[in-house]
């Protein structure tokens, strides 16, 4: 497609296909039943493969959880996780003693660095009606020089994430939430300091887009040589440079060309990932991403030796008090809550 911003169309699998500096992206959407008072589902778990429940039954999954849905304590080294929660809540706990509850538009950005364990549980806080959950988990690589940096996490509250708003000639609105990156005069909150995204020259962007029916917007060009992909995850369709992209498809774009977007007959949602490639060799196995196989073997040996500091919480599937609001407590004891 000479002269078009569109390189190719992807049919999305699980996980979604990503490109350097991104390693992994999944979209979780679960329609959980009401809670049972203990933050688990008020429903029978019979017949589910508890501990490895990834098959959608009745609209939801338990994932690795056995009482409460989610991902009990597990380790990471050598990269970062970006968890964008659009609906529902996530309870975080980690081996550094940090903790949090976030959701309804919040994002947690965690640098695993030299090694950390964390749990990500999905507490079902509503005992009167269903509990909706939607999130993206995105893995972004660290360059070799930062793979053994100190672990760190940042909380990007929904209230602090800038929203770009464009109204087309017919009054139809496109909104873009800037989790990372810049758009016109709007700048996302700062990522963790060791992140590849912390250097503006790398032009890392993590954006969620919502287009009203029929809305038109032109995604502006960035620098050449970036990897840029637009993932459509809900709605009827999105036209990109005249090509129809349906939900569960992605559009791989030339980063230095503007791309004309138009929503179909329904509200359309998309995620954009963009960044300059790190362009280093990497080796990965399970929860570890390093540069060589030898470093992967060392990561497993280090975890077997001290479990990256152990687990200071009473439960591997740690959740916080049911009546607790959104909060983030860091390893030094500092605690923050959303800005009202």
Overview of the structural elements:
- By secondary structure, this protein is mainly beta.
- The protein has two domains: 1-16 and 164-280, Jelly Rolls; 22-160 and 285-317, Sandwich (Jelly Rolls), CATH 2.60.120.10.
- The protein is 4% helix and 42% strand.
- It is built from one helix and 26 strands.
- It has one helix spanning 293-306; strands at 6-11, 22-32, 70-76, 79-87, 89-94, 99-103, 107-111, 116-121, 131-141, 152-156, 163-167, 173-180, 182-183, 186-187, 205-211, 216-219, 227-234, 238-240, 243-245, 249-254, 259-263, 268-275, 283-285, 288-290, 327-329, 335-336.
- Strands 1-20-17-22-15-12-11 form a seven-stranded antiparallel β-sheet, with no helix packed on it.
- The termini are far apart.
* Element-by-element helix/strand order: EEEEEEEEEEEEEEEEEEEEEEEEHEE
Q: The CATH topology of the largest domain, please?
A: Jelly Rolls
Q: Order of strands across the biggest sheet? A: 1-20-17-22-15-12-11
Task: Report the radius of gyration as a whole number of Å.
Answer: 20 Å
The helix/strand class is mainly beta
User: CATH superfamily assignment of the largest domain?
Assistant: Jelly Rolls
How would you sum up the major sheet? 7 strands, antiparallel
The averaged pLDDT comes out at: 97
Main CATH class of the largest domain: Mainly Beta
Oligomer: single chain
First-to-last CA distance: 48 Å
- The coarse silhouette is globular
Contiguous runs where pLDDT drops below 50 for at least 5 residues: none
CATH architecture of the largest domain: Sandwich
Helix-residue proportion: under 10%
Give the helix tally.
1
What share of the residues does DSSP label as strand, in percent? 35-45%
Count of DSSP strands? 26
> How many discrete structural domains?
2
Family: Belongs to the pirin family.
Organism: Natronospirillum operosum
Cofactor: Fe cation
Binding site for Fe cation: 74, 76, 118, 120
């Amino acid at each position: 497609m000479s002269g078009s911003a569109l390189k190719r169309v992807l049919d999305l699998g699980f996980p979604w296909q990503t490109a350097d500096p991104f390693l992994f992206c999944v979209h979780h959407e679960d329609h959980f039943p009401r809670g049972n008072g203990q933050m688990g589902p008020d429903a029978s778990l019979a017949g589910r493969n508890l501990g490895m429940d990834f098959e959608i039954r009745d609209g939801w999954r338990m994932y690795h959880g056995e009482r409460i849905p989610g991902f009990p304590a597990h380790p990471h080294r050598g990269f970062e996780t970006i968890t964008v929660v659009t609906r529902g809540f996530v309870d975080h706990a980690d081996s550094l003693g940090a903790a949090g509850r976030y959701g309804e538009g919040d994002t947690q950005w965690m640098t695993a660095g030299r090694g950390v364990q964390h749990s990500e549980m999905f507490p079902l806080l509503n005992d009167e009606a269903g509990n909706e959950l939607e999130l993206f988990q995105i893995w972004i690589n660290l360059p070799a020089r930062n793979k053994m940096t100190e672990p760190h996490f940042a909380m990007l509250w929904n209230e602090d994430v800038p929203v770009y708003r464009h109204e087309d000639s017919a009054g139809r609105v496109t909104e873009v939430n800037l989790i990372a990156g810049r758009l016109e005069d709007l700048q996302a909150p700062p990522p963790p300091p060791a992140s590849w995204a912390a250097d503006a020259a790398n032009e890392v962007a993590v954006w969620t887009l919502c287009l009203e029916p029929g809305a038109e917007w032109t995604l502006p060009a960035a620098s050449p040589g970036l990897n840029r992909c637009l993932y459509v995850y809900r709605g009827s369709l999105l036209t990109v440079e005249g090509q129809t992209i349906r939900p569960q498809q992605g559009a791989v774009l030339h980063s230095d060309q503007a791309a004309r977007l138009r929503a179909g007959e329904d509200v359309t949602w998309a995620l954009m990932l963009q960044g300059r490639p790190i362009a280093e060799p990497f080796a990965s196995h399970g929860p570890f991403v390093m540069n060589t196989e030898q470093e992967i073997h060392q990561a497993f040996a280090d975890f077997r030796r001290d479990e990256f500091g152990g687990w200071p919480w009473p439960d591997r599937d740690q959740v916080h008090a049911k009546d607790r609001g959104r909060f983030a407590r860091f390893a030094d004891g500092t605690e923050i809550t959303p800005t009202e």
